[in-house]
Amino acid sequence: MQAKLADLNTRLASDSSLDEQMDSVAAAAAQLGFDALVYDYSPVPLDHVGELITPSVVRLRQTPRDWQDLWCTEGFYQIDPVQQLAVSSVAPFTWSYLPKGETVLQRMIDQRHAPVVGYLLDAHLACGVTVPIHLPRGGLATLTGLRPQASPADLEAARHSLADFSLIAHALQEAAHPLLDKEAASRVIRLTRREVECLRWAAEGLTAGEIAEKLCRSLATVSLHLTSAMHKLGAKNRVQAVARAVHYRLLDR
């Protein structure tokens, strides 16, 4: 595996885009028996009330055609137990939706997950492995490999390949990391430069009047920026607006 990983690292380093990197990883994962791949990246994986946020970056290989729409538009991502587990897991894990598939999922699946479970069973992609990668400053990336069937033998094969698949996932993340910020502008909230500037000063404890003096703007203009930011963030007041802006890393620019 070391020789294959070295070759993969070389290919990933020469790939100029995330799509090219995914093609290289898909070829390596296929040798382990994974026909379909899902990669996602979120600079902030949870919203301010603890619900999963649809990832900013998603790349798919060999998944059904409606996957992107279901997971990213129709809300399947929020009720996907694999993704829910990935947020809190620090280790790669094997999973299965087979009734007798004894994995970590069996302890958490309930009726809420029925649409995802039924879809993957029908698609014969009900077994796989997921590697969560928790990043500096709170970001989360995951690489999931799905097997074409979900028999007990497939589950056992997935378990045996988990370590090698984890190496592939980390190799992809290392190569992809410099490319992600260009693609991962927050899909949750977009603040203007002035709104961010005003919130930064508010985070330092300045009043609207003091911020107006700092920026050489009128009090009315600063108040307008702060009020606009509050509405975008769904905040009741400026303190809550600052807290939510910090949570979503909107003041890091």
TrEMBL record:
Keywords: DNA-binding, Transcription, Transcription regulation
Highest taxon of source: Bacteria
DNA-binding keyword on record: yes
Domain annotation HTH luxR-type: ranges: 184-249
Position of the signal peptide: none
One Pfam family of this chain: GerE
Matches recorded under InterPro entries: TF_LuxR_autoind-bd_dom (IPR005143), Tscrpt_reg_LuxR_C (IPR000792)
Protein name as catalogued: LuxR family transcriptional regulator
Organism (species): Pseudomonas muyukensis
Lineage: Bacteria, Pseudomonadati, Pseudomonadota, Gammaproteobacteria, Pseudomonadales
